Amino acid sequence: MCPDADSALPALGFIGLGAMGGPMAANLVAAGYRLTAFDIDADRLAACVAAGASAGESGADVVQRSQVVLTSLRSSAIFVEVAEQSLIPNAREGQVFIDLGTVSPPAARRVAEALAAKGASLLDSPVSGGPGGSASGTLRIFVGGDEATYRRCRPILGVLGDPERVAYCGPSGAGQVVKAVNQLAMGLADAAYLEALAFGVRAGALVEAMRQGVGGESGWRGHFAHLASRVIEGTAESCWVKFPELGYFLAEAEDKGIPMPLAQALQAFLEAGDLSFLDNMRRPTGSFWRELMTRDGLD
Length: 299
Known about the structure:
Rossmann fold, N-(1-d-carboxylethyl)-l-norvaline Dehydrogenase, domain 2, 2 domains, three-stranded mixed sheet, 13 helices
């Protein structure tokens, strides 16, 4: 389990060394933690070993060698698969698991319950800040799970994120719920502003006029002006609306009986387009502005 801040550092494990996980693992090694790492990509694992980690033979090996196991995996389905195959079968009494990926809240709770049956704990701790924040250790981290376990593990989380932005959110699944709020606040707002701009363009207005007349220096007018500028520059197609994660959040809403009309409408709109190239959360929608401008055969 996580020790108090003034006791010996625990042995850590880290599974998933991609664009987010690799820098986080390196930061933990630099902070003095003994780290056993694993990734199915041999090059990523080699880079982590070069940074000072020990190589695990498998996810199960990492669990067996570590007191605290961190995971950073690219989708909810992959996290559940790794949990079922490696984490849960090898978990032991007092062990702590910290998942840093974005996962469907109901799935996070199911994994937490399975680990609790083994006497272990899960902190669902999704992050925000991208690879830059991962490398600099300035991520926002939203933590759900047992509060006492969170407080014992806060020194670890403080290496990965901005201490002022490491937030305890509530019981199991709450970290994923707050991450959903983070993603929806960004994605739905950008989708709404781009829809408004598309309406104006298709109805015959000039984007420059909308930026001048509607945009501003701060608040929502400032953000609107920023997106209008991207449309003018021809870069609006890379707007992020969090499409691959909408299903995670809608699953939680359905489970709790919470109406989510805007998120449902956005998901339905995007599913009707050709977005098959989206295979993980780190890719932008790419065709969102084009879809807004050309749906129903209009240029």
